[in-house]
Amino acid sequence: MNRFTFKPKLLLDLKGYNREKFSADVMAGIIVGIVALPLAIAFGIASGVTPEKGIITAVVAGLAISLFGGSRVQIGGPTGAFIVIIYGIIQQYGETGLLIATTLAGIFLVLLGVFHLGTIIKYIPYPIVVGFTSGIAVTIFTTQIKDLLGLSIANVPADFIEKWVTYVRHIDTIDWWSAGVGLLSVAIIALSSRITHKIPGSLLAIVVMTVGVYLLKQYGLATEVETIGDRFKIRAELPGMNVPDLNWESIKQLVSPAITIAVLGAIESLLSATVADGVIGDHHDSNQELVGQGIANILSPIFGGIPATGAIARTMTNINNGGRTPVSGIIHALVLLAIFLLLMPLAQYIPMACLAGVLVIVSYNMSGWRTFRELLNNPKADVSVLFITFFLTMIFDLTVAIEFGLVLACLLFIKRVMETTEVNLFKDEIVPTDADGTALAEEHLTIPEHTEVYEINGPYFFGIANRFEEVVLQTNERPKVRIIRMRKVPFIDSTGIHNLTNLCEMSHREGVHIILSGVNPKVHEALKRSGFYDLLGKRNICDNIHAALDVAQHYLHTPAGGHE
């Protein structure tokens, strides 16, 4: 494995950087900063922390991802995907537990990048990604019903089903002013793109609804509409630095949610970077990106922030407005910092119902219902993984969904590999066939009497080893020679080696000679290291089937006795 080299994209892009690129990056950064503002506030509140912590996360993590990441245009910050897991951690372990879990997740992400595991993350099955993404979307939507409709509920249950039961029981407490604000916010965001693409729909909805509710309250109307200031005390000041206490007890408790944050962050960031590559025709460094994401999640909790990752919507906004280097991401973070220090007190007037409307649109866009529907036409195994991950995410939590989904996907993968790996037994002649079963003229070989040829076509691992043993034991006659043809075996694991060793020892006791044919270099090296060849004998390792048949003829014409 190649040694990891710390090369952020920023360092590469600064070479040849000019005024034209800087102008484009500044314009893109300002626009993305404005777009990110309402989302940062909404994600912070929905996650169970104060609105300023959402902005602090966007500033600190966004800056770190642009400085140290492996993508030219990635915009990082808090995202909707983390809402469910963050809220659950806070409920169980408090904000201190969240800070520790985020720091651990950052360390895990750095290690994933340093050990070149960035590409492996991409191989997580697509049905799992869609399943838990859609599940998170439904969960986010569910958490916003109270604020969207202005329901009078003292404590909303954490359980998904209990939430809906509670909503139904309290539906008569709906505040029509809040419901109007929330639904109108949804309409403004949904329809704004048809009017203009220059002003973000979420920002437009917040400005219109905030001004509208403020004026209504001045005339004694809409007094029941709750605002951010009614629920939180807004402070426009930078928090002090506080390094989380990583003691062994807290690490043991929080390692599982930390892994969930790391896996989710890795998937989201690399998915966002891959989408961006397709638009700008670039190639991101996945391992460097994970290191950048890790650094961001280590720094964010030091300033009281929450987990962060690459945000697809903000990244696409950056690209569409001309951003082509990490400088635009840095500008976006600085713009957010300026807004935080100068305009944050105004956030107290934003209606909670309006923020709920913003998150309803976020959950809709995140749901990917069209992709979900298309996956229903896939094989039943994939559909099973999709539904199980989807329902586990909603009913239990994301940690359970990812763990169970990955285990199920691995089991299904093993099953599919086993189904594609063939074990064929030839007794009289070897007649190769094509995919349609038609006999081919090449290599039509006659097998001597008292000789059996077993051809393994596919990986020889723990899933197929027992099947091969069953095929051998099912033969009624005991041959004098067994040739195991392994030319199409790309790799072998310890179970396969153990299986071959047992077969060799059993055959020796029965007076049957074992010959291997066509072993590729990788499998050959594995068998050699295991000591299997010392048991088999050098003569019984043949380069091809012709040499193996010649050795078999020698044994057949040699009087019974010791093995060579």
Structural descriptors:
564 residues; alpha/beta; Transcription Regulator spoIIAA; five-stranded mixed β-sheet; two-stranded antiparallel ribbon; 24 helices; elongated
Write the layout of secondary structure elements.
Elements: H1 9-13, H2 19-46, H3 51-68, E1 76-77, H4 83-114, H5 118-121, H6 126-143, H7 145-149, H8 160-169, H9 176-195, H10 201-218, H11 228-231, H12 248-280, H13 286-302, E2 309-310, H14 312-320, H15 326-343, H16 352-367, H17 369-375, H18 380-395, H19 398-420, E3 422-426, E4 429-430, E5 445-446, E6 451-457, H20 462-474, E7 481-488, H21 494-510, E8 513-517, H22 521-530, H23 532-536, E9 541-542, H24 545-556
Parallel strand pairs: 6-7, 7-8, 8-9
Antiparallel strand pairs: 1-2, 3-6, 4-5
Q: Compute the gyration radius: what is it?
A: 31 Å
Count of helical regions: 24
- Could you estimate the helical fraction of the residues in percent? 55-70%
Overall average pLDDT? 88
- How many structural domains does the protein architecture include? 2
Class computed from helices, strands and strand pairing: alpha/beta
User: What global shape is seen?
Assistant: elongated
DSSP strand tally? 9
Unreliable stretches? 435-440
> Which band does the percent of strand residues land in?
5-15%
Distance between the termini: 40 Å
| Lateral arrangement of strands in the main beta sheet | 3-6-7-8-9
Main sheet specs: 5 strands, mixed
